[in-house]
Amino acid sequence: MGLKRALTLKAASLVVVLLFVLLLTTIIIGATGISDKILNGMVQDNLRAIRQELAREIRNPEDLERALEKIKEDLIRSYGLDKPWYVRMPDMIWRIVTLDLGNSRTVVSFSGSNKISDIILERLPNTVLLMITVLIINFALSLMIGVRVATKPGSFLDRLISMYSAVSYALPTWWLGILMILVFAFYLKIFPFGGMYSTPPPVDPLVRSLDLVWHLCLPVLTLVIATSGSWIYITRSIVITTAQEDFVSIARAKGLSERIVLWRYIIRPAAPPILTNLILSLAAYLGGAILTETIFSWPGMGLLYFEAIMSVDEALILALTYMYTLIYVIARFVLEVLYVIVDPRVRYA
Amino acid sequence: MRDSLLELQEVRTYFYVRKGLFKTLAVKAVDGVSLSINRGETVAIVGESGSGKSTLGRTALKLVEPTSGKIIFEGKDITNLSSEDLKWFRRKAQMIFQDPYTSLNPFMTIKQIIEEPLVVHGFDAREREERVIKALEDVRLLPPETFLSKYPHMLSGGQRQRVGIARCLVLEPVFIVADEPVSMIDASSRVEILLLMRSLQGKYGIGMMYITHDIATTKYFSDKIAVMYAGKLLEIGPSQRILKEPLHPYTVALIDAVPDPDPHNRFRLRRVVTGEPPSPLNPPSGCRFHPRCPYSDGMKCVKEEPEMIEVDMNRKVACHYIEKIAGK
Amino acid sequence: MSLLDVQKLMLYYKTSRGTLRAVDGVSFSLGKGETLGLVGESGSGKSSTAIAIMRLLPRNVELYDGRILLNGVDISKLSEKDFREKIRWKKISMVPQGAMSSFNPVLKIGFQVAEPLMVHQNMRKPETLKKVRELFKLVGMPPDYVDRYPHELSGGMRQRAAIAMALILNPDIVILDEPTSALDVSIQAQIMNLLKNLKKELGLSMIFITHDIALASDICDKIGVMYAGQIVELSSSENVLLNPRHPYTQKLIASIPRLREEKMPEFIPGAPPDLVSPPSGCRFHPRCPYSDGMKCVKEEPEMIEVEDDHFVKCWLHSGGSK
Amino acid sequence: MSKYFIEGLSEFWASKTSKMGLAFLLIIIIISMYTLFTFPLDYGTRYWNNPKYWADNPKIAMPEWINLFVGNKFLEHNILSTSTIQKMYPSGAYYIKTYEIVYDLMADQFPTFITLKFDNVTFFSRPPTIEVLVIRPDNSTINLYKFVVEPPLSTEEPPYSRYVVEPKRIMLSGEPQLSLVLSNFLLDKYNLSIDPKDVAEIGYEKVIFGEPYENGFKPLKGKYVFTTTLYARDVRDQIGTVSIVIGGQVYGLMGTDILGRDLSQGLLFGFPVALLIGIVVSVLTTIIGATLGIVSGYVGGRVDEIIQRVCDVMNNIPQLPILIFLTFIFGGKLWIIVVILVLFGWPSLVIVVRSMVLQAKSSSFIEAAISVGASRWRIMIRHVFPQVAPYILAQMIFFTPSAILAEAALSFLGLGDPSIPTWGQILEYGFRNGAVFLGYWWWVVPPGLMIVFSAITFVFIALGFEPVINPRLRRWR
Question: Which of chain D's residues have a Cβ under 8 Å away from the Cβ of A96?
Fold first, then answer.
């Protein structure tokens, strides 16, 4: 059936994107010698662990050094450090895919591990929580306000929304976050400065989740204000266009109530183009989320990015770049699936 | 063939569309058409949408490359000429387009639009000016001076189409393809444009290919009619004869489908062909008309493609049972 | 008493250039089982008349006035809700011009055809679909097309579906707005035959809107010729086609290329007027060969009955200058 | 074309947003020109990132204009200097020269710090001794500081010059010897016994410029005369300039950051940088994108296929992570950031321009041009390009704010070019030093406003451009 094929094609093209990013990043870190640095770091880590173990068995320091030297050579060989970077590339790609990038030099996971995969997997849900909350709010807002405005094009509210979307295009999310903290946390003191839970975190599950919501408010508000403008505006434009279609006036002629006309004949057919625009704005939105986490010390991957940059942790940055691409690709795919579901024309094309 | 201006021999024009990743399908827009147009003669190509009539016109002007077959213009084979070698042909053969709204560059003035062919062919400024004025007078955009600096959006549909015709005329062509020149114009102005074209054609002795879906207009504006269906010609002959006694079942139905304004029409049903025109991606085997033909035998018609048979002076029909049908 | 009686219908739009008088005092009546043709060039106000009757008003309406009597009841005075629940589709339905754009692309054809049954008669979906299948057979469509989406149908099939949709509630009146202008000639003939059959079998009353007076002759019992937002001649098809009295009607009929008669078509010089600033007096006077340059320019002629049931809006017949 | 274009421009001019945008742009250009002509090009490395240059400034001082809005005025920053010798007389083996600086304390505030500064001290034989004391409004005297100028080296020849390149700077607030002096002063004058250690705790400024009041000190308003005495061995010895920096709580138009940098200068320097980044990136992006788009659309075939595939992939990459990665790896040089922004900016334009070219190509006036025998070049230039040109121009304007925003975001993440001050970097430094959490609004609000201002300038112009791109939006008579 066409549905499967359309989705397979989409999936394939997104996999190509993922591969391209992997290739690009590995070539760059290979050619600039950073991959050597990362692998050397891993060898050193391993050696340190082995040295402690061996030290218990081999008492003679010279013997120990000799044994270690041999093990080091083995390690160098097993990591491919004796070969040029382009030979190791497939290996390197696999390492990134499995997040087997050794240990972070500076950042430690909440549970105390400094393995990159542990750190990232711990942060991932926090990022996803923030992003999805904003996504849902944005979607609801753009539908509610966008449709409302679309029924009165040229009205004061409509012009206000147009202005708002123009301003929000020029408004850096992260700076807005700073303003929000200044206003709501510093001066008004109604929201916390950042973080995910109060210190110490509440123990009672209910209080704990309320605490989470309280901490979620400002970052979400920031992201919503910075990104919803364009969403609402796009929704408005699409709804206005759809409302002018002949089938809408036919639906009215059929004696359908305005509610049915609105939902079934305007919003429903407008869904595919709205979704398309949503897909297109996803990247900008992802970028906004990274910076928002930084501003609000939200313990997600965006903040991790900032920490990694500040402490010049190449392996961690590499892993995060891959993870963000992966998240983006997955989100794209989910939206594409949704798109195919809402638009029968794609299904049977 | 006496005085033949343009001759198409077994012309085929296929377009290729990619379907999925690997499959390529051929759209057989024109599939083996032979036709000749004499000087000063108008041949009407009549067909429904998707019949390939527009592609045929564009192929005749070499705006689309034919897949196979031959195009002979003034005795010269122009099928495989490069665009450089075609310059003389471009001067002699012109086209009038269907949509007067998109066929004029919105960024250019009427003068710039009409004089462009002259610029391309290297006329000096004085001669350009003269010819542009003359062309505007020819298409009765009067007084011409008032139109020169206008932009297309300032004109009505009929006026725009006249500009399109004027652009055609400045090079004094001998051959014009008019692709549905009046289908997007108000009913009351249609006849005016057609009459204008007809008179200009007579005045300058231009050979014309008049492409239309409306067989009624061919009666006064063509000498020959060629009926096209799914990329093939079904019938060709002098206009008056075809309109009076159409032979091919499809031609019969086409003519029947056109009502004259007669109040008694409403009391009778028209003879119609059932079904719908085939997709050019996947045309029927044998005679392309067989799935809709009341005379189809389900055997020969399905399997064999009928030849164009000369049934009469200058009159050809492609049908296996033409004698039987004509005899009725 | 006629089924539908439209009196002095007016519909003006606000535009950036000024008031556009799309429909300017249109009156006509339609009997039961009758088909009225509204014929005119683009911009003559014929589609706006349909919009005005169905009360499908766009946002920029400046004036909407007149009386629309359905079985003697003025439906133009009904509230929006009553009009929607009692009149639309139940009493008056329509077949729109664009076959493609008249269906919602994301809903199945069957559902869209059946929808009025569910909304107006509270029928359940399976029952309605059964009815739709029967109707599809009547309009010459395969019944299993109910499960298809609009884009999977050809133009002709979509137009048949649109006709089926218009018939689903057995309305008193069907308005057909250029139902065949987007179709090929052979399909157009099929649809016209279908309409004729439906007219005969169901005794439908129809308003048939077209720019092609020859096509109108194919189905209409009465023809109203529209020019610049007004009806200039209104009578039986026989009168209008064989004995036209208004110069515009005469010219319009003369401009048709005819296959079965030896007559060179004529044309009307000039272009249709701009409805934002229509000509004074008789709106046809700038293009009319009989214009006297005086009264025709200054005064608007009344609609008068020149013979039994034959109305013309022209000074030639108003006892003025002959 | 020309007339058509002029009509479009008048349409552009008629819209309020575009007028506003153009006015803003003019402001940006004027400020940028001013900055470029008055600031050295190596301003970033020579001054901005040189902490010594800002040593005299108060740290984290609010802008001066804040005094217009508060009842209790903040103390303004003051640098007082003199080069004139007030008195000169021999005394024993010495020649004594005095320099006087009068400071009038009018605010109800204490200075935040006091710094003494000596420029260009010259001596001919033995190093002179310099002493500074202050006579307060209540006529009491405090000896603030005393030091001997560094003696000459054996290689030096008289006259000996000191503090020429870098002035001698004495942060009084950090001088331990002063605590004893002040402790004695308090005992003598007010009979107040305070341990020298506690005097440092209270703050020297409060003791010098105030009098005890209830449990603390209150400012003593009036004239303070700072007298510097040079005890010279040679009559020619002298001090070039004596300065006293009275640290205020407000400074300049935009206040200062934690290093005492004058934020107004950094903000000003941000204008040409933002304009440069925005315009260079958008122009390069547009040139690449438009060229490839037109080629892709017009040439078609395999070239088209390849360009399209590349665009597909590039367009599907989440930008910010890749930008972060690349600037991180290749280092934050301004030109590298520009190159990376261009590299990932062009594909979106290619796709749109290509589709427009395809559309233009299929419109029948192109076919008409082909049918009269017009050459490819003529068709491209006369028919295709005018169709896409306004759109390309509009896109170019639209790329500008996104480039400005992207650079700001990278700078904010600490990936900016450290040798050039930008708004993003000022914000980053502020954020990292807790400006947000401590409420130093003047440090973080203005740079953000500047970013929004410059970005919105181009958004407005682009919006005003819309009717030019789309003739259907024009109002015909």
Answer: none
Q: β-strand D210-213 against D94-105: which pairing, if any? A: unpaired
**CATH 1.10.3720.10 in chain D, residues?**
3-51+262-473
Distance CA(B33)–CA(B230), nearest Å, equals 11
Torsion sign (Cα): B147, B149, B152, B153:
negative
All residues of chain D having their beta carbon less than 8 Å from the beta carbon of residue B103 are 363-365, 367-368
Cβ(D253)–Cβ(D61) under 8 Å?
A: no
- At residue B286, φ and ψ (nearest 5 deg) are 60, -135
Burial label, B231 (beta-carbon count in 10 A; 0-12, 13-18, 19+) = buried
Nearest to C116 among A245, A254, A257 (CB): A254
Instruction: Count structural domains, chain B.
Output: 1
Residues in A closer than 8 angstroms to C97, CB to CB, are 246
Chain B closest CA to C292's CA: distance in Å?
A: 22
The answer to whether the CB atoms of B263 and C236 lie below 8 A apart is yes
Shortest distance between the Cα of C223 and any Cα of chain B, in A, equals 10
- Could you confirm whether domain D78-246 is CATH 2.60.120? yes
pTM for the model:
0.82
Residue to mutate among D325, D442, D456, with most A CBs inside 10 A, is D325
Angle of CA points A325, A330, A334, to nearest 5° = 150
Tens of pLDDT, residue by residue over B258-287, are: 888 888 888 888 888 888 888 888 888 889
Q: D373, B61: Cβ pair inside 8 Å? A: no
Identify the H or E element spanning B327. Answer: helix B322-327
Tens of pLDDT, residue by residue over A248-286, are 999 999 999 999 999 999 999 998 888 888 777 777 788
pLDDT in tens, A312-342: 888 888 888 888 888 888 888 888 888 888 8
Measured between its terminal Cα atoms, the distance across chain B in Å is 32
Could you tell me the residue range of the domain that residue B88 belongs to?
4-326
CATH number assigned to the domain comprising residue B159: 3.40.50.300
Delimit the domains of chain A by residue range: 3-97, 116-342
> Does C54 sit within 8 Å of A253, measured CB to CB?
yes
Does the CB of B217 have a partner CB in chain D at under 8 Å?
no
* Mutate: best of A254, A259, A347, partner C, most C CBs <10 A: A254
Look at B103 and D369 and tell me if their CB atoms are within 8 Å. Answer: no
Name the closest residue on chain C to residue B275, using Cα atoms. C187
Q: Which two tokens stand for residue B32?
A: 């083996």
| Burial grade of D107 (CB within 10 A; 0-12, 13-18, 19 or more) | middle
**Termini Cα distance of chain C:** 34
CATH of A116-342, picked from 1.10.10.410, 1.10.3720.10, 1.10.10.10, 3.30.2130.10, is 1.10.3720.10
Q: What stretch of H or E contains D371? A: helix D364-371
ipTM: 0.80
Q: Which residues contact D24 (CB under 8 A, 6 or more apart)?
A: D453, D456, D457, D460
Judged by CB atoms closer than 8 Å, whether chains meet at B262 and C241 is answered as yes
Which one is the CATH code of D3-51+262-473: 1.10.3720.10, 3.40.50.1860, 3.20.20.70, 1.20.120.140? Answer: 1.10.3720.10
